[in-house]
């Protein structure tokens, strides 16, 4: 059978766009269909606008800190509308860049909602991005699902009264009192944004510490940093009800406590975006959480149909989706073997103030591979010896396999942690040892030099039992 396209990508986020561009570069006939935003979640409702807002939230503190360095600056008032307008302008610019990149690569752009008719046929219908677009049916030899994920709301009374991260980027005004439910990346990052801009923030999460899945020492350090930021934490709590009277929202917690706010924000996870894709017209298998099941090569259970990025609910990070898309396009259309990515050492960052970054294994995870040496340091960075923020600490941790001395994990909380960690991620990916770190000369005076001057082992962690 002759198909209109060699590759049809459903979803123009970072992963889908990379897959399409690489495939087109190999000579494939490629189309991309997008229903809502060119650039996907990361560009429009995720990492990019969120980091701009994090940066905005830090300027007030920088003004205050400047006084200790001799400046007579005065902290003014923040104009939320100006920030949102500036953010929107930048996102519009990036949307245009994504469209331009695709067009220059010779890719056919289809605007609308994609729905499978069968395994190689897709119907593209009207969507928010193109409400008046005439429906069109296209066929493709290979189809890639890259539709990402969408926020989840808890199943409690009044959940519809709360916002999620999607709405947070377009609030007309900054709420003075915010209750944020969720102790993961999104909850912490927005808690820091609102607190830094002057809001009273209550952060509710179910675990004893925030950031489930991160190293325990770093989770404890982050909990301290959250308090230093002026945020009230409610650990080991869940929301059980949200009500509204007048302009005031009330969140009832499962311990009976009530919190009043001008805005309630659920950061309680995300789910793969598969609704209305018509997967029932295919043999694509879906997991209990809605994730599309794929093998190591991103192949679904339907031959010729693939899935990449958050819709598979594996490592839900933009650079991972990009790598998956690139790898898939090389494998389908390239002449040389595709490059290898080290997904096991995918670095990650939480853009709080101060931020935290991590690569490799936690102490607990590493102990399953044998006895572990831990190197740990906590200090006041140079800037804050003058600023007076003595409680704004930098924390660093290296997790080293005792038998091989290989650095299995590196974790940093502090100013510029993500910028430092990216280089360390190369070392961990390369399998370098603690001795390699030790023989590297540091850059002085920096916080980063602590990573190569950690000479004294803090403790030894025994191997975890097989049970």
TrEMBL record:
Coiled-coil intervals, chain numbering: none
Details of cofactor binding: Binds 1 FAD per subunit.
Transmembrane parts of this sequence: none
Single annotated GO MF: glutathione-disulfide reductase (NADPH) activity
Pfam families: Pyr_redox_2, Pyr_redox_dim
InterPro entries assigned to the protein according to its UniProt record, in alphabetical order: FAD/NAD-bd_sf (IPR036188), FAD/NAD-binding_dom (IPR023753), FAD/NAD-linked_Rdtase_dimer_sf (IPR016156), GSHR/TRXR-like (IPR046952), Pyr_nuc-diS_OxRdtase (IPR001100), Pyr_nucl-diS_OxRdtase_dimer (IPR004099), Pyr_OxRdtase_I_AS (IPR012999)
One GO CC term on file: cytosol
List of catalytic residues: 444 (proton acceptor)
SUPFAM superfamilies, per the entry: FAD/NAD(P)-binding domain, FAD/NAD-linked reductases, dimerisation (C-terminal) domain
Domain FAD/NAD(P)-binding, first and last residues per copy: 5-325
Limits of the Pyridine nucleotide-disulphide oxidoreductase dimerisation domain: 346-454
UniProt keyword list: Disulfide bond, FAD, Flavoprotein, NAD, NADP, Nucleotide-binding, Oxidoreductase, Redox-active center
Record keyword Nuclease present: no
Gene3D superfamilies linked: 3.30.390.30, FAD/NAD(P)-binding domain
Quaternary structure note: Homodimer.
Protein name as annotated: Glutathione reductase
Species classification: Bacteria, Pseudomonadati, Pseudomonadota, Alphaproteobacteria, Acetobacterales
């Amino acid at each position: 059978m002759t198909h209109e396209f060699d590759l049809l990508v459903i979803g123009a986020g970072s992963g889908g766009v990379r897959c399409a561009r690489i495939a087109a570069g190999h000579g494939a006939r490629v189309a991309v269909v997008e229903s809502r935003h060119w650039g996907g979640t990361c560009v429009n409702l995720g990492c990019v606008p969120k980091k701009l807002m994090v940066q905005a939230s830090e300027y007030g503190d920088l003004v205050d800190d400047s006084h200790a360095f001799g400046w007579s600056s005065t902290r003014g008032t923040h104009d939320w509308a100006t920030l949102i307008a500036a953010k929107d302008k930048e996102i519009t610019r990036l949307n245009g860049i994504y469209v331009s990149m695709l067009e220059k690569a010779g890719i056919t752009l289809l605007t609308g909602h994609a729905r499978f008719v069968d395994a190689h046929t897709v119907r593209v219908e009207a969507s928010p991005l193109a409400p008046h677009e005439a429906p069109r049916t296209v066929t493709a030899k290979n189809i890639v699902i890259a539709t990402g994920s969408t926020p989840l709301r808890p199943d409690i009374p009044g959940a519809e009264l709360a916002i999620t991260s999607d709405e947070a980027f377009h609030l007309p005004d900054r709420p003075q009192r915010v209750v944020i439910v969720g102790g993961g990346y999104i909850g912490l990052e927005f808690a820091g944004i609102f607190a830094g801009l002057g809001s009273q923030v209550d952060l509710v999460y179910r675990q004893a510490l925030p950031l489930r899945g991160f190293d325990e020492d770093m989770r404890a350090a982050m909990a301290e940093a959250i308090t230093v930021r002026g945020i009230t934490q409610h650990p080991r709590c869940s929301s059980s009800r949200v009500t509204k009277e007048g302009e005031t929202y009330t969140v009832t917690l499962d311990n009976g406590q009530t919190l009043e706010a001008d805005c309630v924000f659920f950061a309680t996870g995300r789910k793969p975006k598969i609704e209305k894709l018509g997967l029932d017209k295919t043999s694509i298998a879906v997991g209990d959480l809605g994730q599309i099941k794929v093998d190591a090569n991103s192949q679904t259970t339907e031959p010729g149909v693939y899935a990449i990025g958050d819709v598979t609910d594996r490592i839900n990070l933009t650079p991972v989706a990009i790598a998956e898309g690139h790898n898939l396009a090389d494998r389908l259309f390239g002449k040389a073997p595709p490059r290898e990515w080290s997904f096991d050492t995918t670095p990650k960052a939480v853009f709080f103030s101060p931020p935290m970054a991590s690569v490799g294994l936690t102490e607990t995870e590493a102990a399953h591979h044998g006895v572990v040496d831990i190197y740990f340091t906590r200090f006041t960075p140079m800037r804050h010896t003058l600023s007076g923020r003595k409680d704004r600490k930098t924390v660093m941790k290296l997790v080293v396999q005792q038998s091989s001395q290989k650095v299995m994990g590196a974790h940093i909380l502090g100013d510029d942690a993500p910028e430092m960690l990216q280089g360390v991620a190369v070392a961990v990916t390369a399998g370098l040892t603690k001795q390699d770190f030790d023989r590297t000369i540091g850059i002085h005076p920096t916080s980063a030099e602590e990573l190569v001057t950690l000479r004294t082992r803090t403790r030894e962690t025994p191997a975890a039992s097989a049970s």
